[in-house]
Input
Amino acid sequence: MNEPKANSPHAKSERRDLSYPYAFLASLPSGEMVERLSGQGGILNRLTLEFDAAKLPIAGPPEVSLELPERLRKSFNKVLTRIKEGVLTAARGAALILPRSEAPPDVLSQLEEKPKQS
Output
């Protein structure tokens, strides 16, 4: 058999992984939420992703889909997310988002005041 040696350039190119790293894919849903909700969506409490066995090849930018609830709740909202390229889905999951709290202006001004020293 004509197999390349372990340290030859041909062997390295055959072993090279031409797929997106999991860390990059895991960062996409939270970035998409910030962009779509203009930073007014609340606090991301938990993001759970399930990755498929097949890695997503680098062929173009992956598509991130978000399914927001029809009616936003005051306690928390569950957002479904999916990362895919064409028909291949790399990851799917859900995020729990706590709503952004509106603090009364007098509370904020009290926090900004310097404590009195005695």
Q: What stands out?
A: The longest strand covers residues 88-98.
